[in-house]
Amino acid sequence: MKKQTRILLKFSSTLLVFGAFLFIYFFYNPTMQGVPFPKCPSYSFFGLVCPGCGTQRAIHALLHLHLQEAFLYNPLLIICFPFLAYMFGLYLYNFIFEKKKQIQLLYSPFFSKCLLVVICLYFVLRNLPFLSLTFLNPNN
Length: 140
Description:
mainly alpha, 6 helices, 63% helix, globular, DUF2752 domain-containing protein, membrane, transmembrane, transmembrane helix, DUF2752
């Protein structure tokens, strides 16, 4: 298969999958009953709010341009959203056009350790019952 045909096939399939994802999260609210979105195992089994809790609701709110509501569901996701969007875009670019561009920061051990500390700290702070930290819990 020619390279241009492969690129076109990858681009169209990526567009189809990403479009389906956007369609589902735009038209179906994860908070509605009967919607087949997965529930958080951490919250379901242990009652702990994980760093990803509220992400589906935040994506739905973002697609409707409700930034404040999205921030209340998952503040870390919204703060990191530009970086995550850039990483995802670069991944798709590499996949579609068969390139190998990288973000050197992601391969730094210091960055990885800092990210792990931030995510662990966020996990702990989301589950503390103090009044000043309850805004981190999307279920309040």
